[in-house]
Amino acid sequence: LQIGQGQEKKEKKTKKEFNDFIINVSGDSIYGKITGNLTPAITSVQISFIDNETKTKRVYKAHQIKSWHPAGADFYFESKEYRPPGTAKGQPGLGVYMKRLTPYNGTVKMYEYYNTDELNGYTQVFLERRGKMTEVKYSKFRKQMAEYFKDYIDLSEKIKKKKYKKKDLKKIIDEYN
After folding, report:
1. pTM of the model as a whole
2. Nearest by Cα to 175 from 141, 148, 144
3. Mean pLDDT of residues grouped by 10 in the chain (177 residues)?
4. What's the rounded Cα separation, in Å, for the pair 158 and 165?
5. 3-state class of 150 per DSSP?
6. How far is CA 104 from CA 101, 109, 110, in A?
7. Are 173 and 149 contacting, i.e. CB atoms less than 8 angstroms apart?
8. Three-class SS of 31-78
9. What Cα–Cα distance (Å) separates residue 162 from each residue in 57, 152, 154?
10. Of 40, 72, 141, 147, which is least surrounded by CB within 10 A?
């Protein structure tokens, strides 16, 4: 077949493939597009996702998948259990997505969680070690972090001596890990 002047070869158009992905409860990566209202209040509890392969759109609430990953971002969101203050021992917490700010490896992981009350939204920071979540209390930062990292004496002393500030929390975790 010869294409004459003024004629263009028509190519079959395919829907664009996206590089966002989720990790399902089995640990498989599924590529697609995270869509919808991506405000912190919404993404802390659910996301909408269009699967590249099936082209289906589905809403995932926390604990229905392990994590979701925006393409090209240096962070991702993990499904976690949030236990608000006052939650009785033995009672389940809330399923939420927390933004993970530290890499996969390392003993201590750092998360940011966007929480809301009836009128306001606010961000909380949590550290996780051996599956236990600890909220960082910035009003007691130096005392709390020196105690949290007490098994690394040099780091604990640096925190006590004000070598690190609140803004250096990720550096503290990097040094510990």
Report:
1. 0.82
2. 148
3. 44 62 95 91 93 95 94 91 85 91 89 86 93 93 97 96 94 95
4. 10
5. coil
6. 10, 8, 11
7. no
8. EEEEECCCCHHHHCCEEEEEECCCCCEEEEECCCEEEEECCCCCCEEE
9. 49, 16, 13
10. 72
